Amino acid sequence: MVNLAQQLLDTAAEHGGRPALRMDDAVLTYDGFREAAAGVAAGLRDRGVRPGDRVGMVLPNVLSFPVVFYGALMAGAAVVPMNPLLKAREVEYYLRDSGARLVVALDSIADAATEAAAAVGVDAVTVGPVDAGETLGGSGSGDAEPRADGDAAVILYTSGTTGPPKGAELTHANLSGNARTTQETLLEGTADDVIMGCLPLFHVFGLTCALDAGVLAGACLTLLPRFDGAKALSVIERDRVTVFEGVPTMFAAMLHQADRDRYDVSSLRLCVSGGSAMPVEVMRGFEEAFGCIVLEGYGLSETSPVASFNHPHAERRPGTIGTPIRGVEMRLVDDEGRDVATGDVGEIAIRGENVMKGYWGKPAETAKAIPDGWFRTGDLARQDEDGYFAIVDRKKEMIIRGGYNVYPREVEEALYEHPAVAEAACVGVPHPELGEEVAAAVALKPGAQADAGELQAWVKERVAAYKYPRHVWLVESLPKGPTGKILRRAVEVPAEVRA
Q1: pLDDT digits (tens, 9 = 90+) for 128-140
Q2: Nearest to 301 by CA among 197, 396, 424
């Protein structure tokens, strides 16, 4: 019975005076981090939060994020992290579905969270970028509430191609195990490390591999609220960053920074890439330009996230996602769940300590995703004779735009709310920097009128900024299968959109 927050208490006992969190000039030592989190825990208890309750968080990468996250865990709550770019209706769904007791939001961007909380009938608490410990602070012990390994620590919302978004229920054992394996076998970090915190902490990659793994090591996490290639390079130079973790678009932005040679990045010893496939040319160019190795891996929200990696002391194979990490098994299966032959394409199935407990409140969806103890990822891959996996396609029709997941159904639902729209299909189109861009083909109702710009603006008002389609075009009708289902993969993308 160990609460994930216990790792902060243990590290603070050993490395209390060392810097734990930094955001430009603001710095928190591990002692300060522990005290601020304990204040948040006490404040949440004062507001009625009890072990097992859910607490929503709408915070970017500011000092208050780790403080509120660990404070909520210390209080025994499960955290529901949300992208600060979400609109009120999106936040409202997550709060309602998770049954959150309250939501904590950054004061400067709290409108959506405040509106959503009012609609659901729960409190919205606003905090500044560095003062969550004081704002939320109450008085109480600095202990973490006892939690069982199988108790939820985090509920992360993810969508499929059907049905509303689902909350992946990650337990204390899921997250602590994945963070420890990441720290010990991939990062090989120490208290002398400085980890770059530009991956969103509301996403499981940043949460586990930067924050939680960093706390385990006693390392310093230097936060960058909004990614920018030049700013990232300047922070690496200023703080002597040793570990950079990012999605491929971040690596590309730094590589293509015009004045990159003026930054001293010699402190970098390791870079980690995930979120989507990194183009081999970007990886080679980055390693050449910055003199460090890049380890590429694979994971999902449902797997806490890390499932496989190119390991530091094994042969690295660019273009692959490496081999399974400690405590995790991976295999490739056909539609009937049978193993496919080496070299053949199959769906990645995962079993191990990292696999979620299930989808929050959705037993039927959980049984479908994990029918036999093996989680079906929806990703198609090949495995070579040495056991290395290479992704070839996604079975699910998710779009990955600059490292963010965009689910076609959410965009289509917003389009269907427009009175002129009869049919809509959202698809991903290649983009040189973002990997994929969001696009939509729309058929109008007979006699109805609307242009592409109007439809684009309509969606932009209803979904987070990274989700709305940058390309919209009108068609007479959309391709359909024998049952009348719209076939996204058969949608013809105009040449000017592909260019």
Answers
A1: 999 999 999 877 7
A2: 396
